[in-house]
User: What shape does this take?
Amino acid sequence: MAVAQENARAEGRSFSPFWTIARRDSLAGFLFIAPQLVGIIAFVLIPLGLVFWYSLHEWNVLANTFTYTGGQNYRMLIEDESLLEVLGATAIFSAGLVILNMSLALLLAVLLNQKLAGIAIFRTLFFSPVVVSLVAWTIVWGFLLQKNGGINGMLLMLGIEGPNWLREETTAMISVIVVQVFKNVGLNMILFLAALQGVPKELYEAARIDGAPAFKQFRRITLPLISPTILLTSIITIVGSLQVFAQIAVLTQGGPGLSTTVLVYYLYQQAFQFHFFGYGSTLSILLFAIVAILTFAQWQMRKRIVFYES
Amino acid sequence: MKAELSPRTRTALYGLMCVLLIPFVFPTWWMVTSSIKPISDIFAFPPQLIPQSYDWTTYSKVFELQPFVRQYWNSAYIAALVTVGTMVVSSMAGYAFARIRFPYANTIFMIVLLGLLIPSEVTIVPLFQMFLKAGMVNTHWPLILVPIFGAPSVFATFVMRQFFVTLPAELEEAARVDGLGRFKIFAKIALPLAKPALASVAIFTFLHSWNLFLEPIVFLSSAEMFTLPQALTQYTDAYGGPMWNIQLAAATLTALPVLIVFVIAQKQFVEGLAHTGLKG
Amino acid sequence: MADVTLSDIRKSYGALKTIHGVNLDIRDGEFVVLVGPSGCGKSTLLRMIAGLETITDGTLKIGDRRVNDLDPKDRDIAMVFQSYALYPHMTVATNMGFSLEHRGANKAEINERVNWAAGILGLTNLLDRYPRQLSGGQRQRVAMGRAIVRNPQVFLFDEPLSNLDAKLRVVMRGEIKALHRRLKTTTIYVTHDQVEAMTMADRIVVLNGGRVEQIGAPLDLYDRPANQFVAGFIGSPSMNFLTGTITEQGFQTSDVVLPLPASKGTVMGQAIVYGIRPEHFRLNDHPGRASVSAEIVLIEPMGSETQVTMRLGDTQVIGVFRERISGTTGDIINISLDIDAIHLFSGDGAIRLN
Assistant: This one.
């Protein structure tokens, strides 16, 4: 008792007047964020500046020349006919992925929200591909989608001759979308399920007393109430879809032709396979602009389509 | 929530879910079973859902053709370092943004959030040049430093901040009265209470690092340095065609440990990620 | 244990001033209650004493030390929070010993102090539990235990009973009071509940809008409130106020004339506020008292007493009577007023006149 008191008194030293409580707290704040802030400056902001700087240059790695060319790379961007195809493929891939992913996730979430015995086991199984190594998952699908692979084997047992999935333009695109959807739909499913479980039961009870049929309950109560989650996950999913690389690299290498060459894959090819670092940087700027515009547009949309926000 | 389901609806729902499960579960099953089939059986018709004979030599080839143990170790230690590092960096930054008043806090937070808007693919070209100049190409440094301090950790920081915002202010005030300074409040009060948020950060950071593909193939060039995702694609024959059974065996070795951990701790995984997403 | 002295303490957030120069001398061992409506600045003032809010201007002394710029931990105070703020991840014993741990006390000493405090508060059997396993009253006791283990110079309580139900509040009120009698530590206690203030305080400080309205012993405040705000705040149901003017017959409000007590501060024709507490009305069975008639608006029988809302002239007033009263809305009753218990305030309510 006495010691504790003595200690308290001893610690009652005055700090120099400059180090007020507020100043000491500010210092602590800066120290706490320093690693993150330095990291962002070094690994995001400076590279972002550099990528813009590079995009204004013609960079020949073999000749070791780095020449300022102004908007030359951007003119090339507009004139690049392959890029048009690439952007088309990117749009189809992203749109297909988001639509399929969101609807399947919602369907699965509604199913998992039913009161059924053993539902937790289904939840675990639907979620399991999320934790399977991405490249492992892609390899086994690549194996299944071979001309003489498992899927066509099964189809043949039903008397159907399947296509060479990864070697035809339409089916190749469908394949990369589907492989990616099954890999990650479990994440959105879990988010939707949590949102569904957050809808107050009383609302459904009130709707049943009002005599609303099940589908109407879903459309008029469930959907509006989970719309913030739908918006949020759709942003994450779209931005994520623009970053899909491994699946394309492993399954199709962008082919056949350019049919599955999405922007990130094209960027990788230009910069790291053909060593066009200047043009690759220009493509990076384009990717950045697309992500920024999409994110911004969706935040704007939030005001119109999201009915409810907590 | 809903009226009791009739037995008929019940059966229909179970049936629907079982059909839907096929593309989620079958690939994993096919991967494991095909990896132990003899090469002659893997494309057999009709497809063998259950292997009829076994060939374990495939697994020894996984280790003969490439330094697979070394590659496994590379992936494991990189993922472990990145996970721990991200937890430290993001919990500190998240705590400061949520709980400490310091000048320009909001502006700095907005700058940090930029990291969410800039996929690492955008900055891969200059990052490569920077690490090239630093002599760190074909080392693991880019795969460790960038995720811990750069854009990938911003989401973790955001998750941690959202958690710390909900921490009652009176708890910290009580700690201040009890004689703790900022660092001790963080270490002894805030951090122990943030275990659920830290767990979700750990899970998604680990998975992100474990799955990293573009960065390794950009930064790494020798087989000794490769990480698993990259190594898996290297089992090819003289014509560049995949050696399917060996690839599948290596894929199984890559996927199974994480799957097993997931089955054991599936509640933490699912809830951890749901928790993150709701708030992110 | 120590005096606490506040000299012209001020607080502002930028241009917004919330505390406007508070002076207060708290004597060693005193139990002082800061009371006022929400937003009056009482919690801010307490948190400034604790060191959780910075002091914009003025001097705060604990004992002989000026503590304005000291961290809470260096002020030798302990605080009980409204939400108790128990550390959820620590046992009761760890919670209580936590501050000692950070002051370099050894294990044996911590144990001794924790057991001593637990003994006083009846927590001995709960030392290994976690806060989530405790009831509201038990948590409250742990919060107090955490404060007393350290034997600080000053205890600070920030609305500690507002999360408890009514019954438990009465019990804990008694316990806190008993604890103070036993330890005799200087205590500053914030509440918005005037009943708590009345029953617990040696002295009450009534705050309003960041200013001190009155400081005094509970019954002094009740019997001689310095202004209309204090008069209305202390006491439940509140004092009734009627506005009107002083005439030769007495106090005139609309068409009713009420008796006036002797007072030096009033002049004929002056507009004043006339205050009377509900229990100072009597049913007119006391011959010799001035009588007025009032119209019944509502009768609420409480069993032990009857609360009657009545219309007196233009004003609705509340009376509390020991008798049971029969009658309905619109009936007229004759009542008299206890002339010694009438409070007169200036027309703006700022000054007491009698």
Summary: The domain at 60-279 of chain B is CATH 1.10.3720.10 (MetI-like fold). Chain B touches chain C through 16 residues (CB under 8 Å). Residues 68-99 of chain B form the longest helix (32 residues).
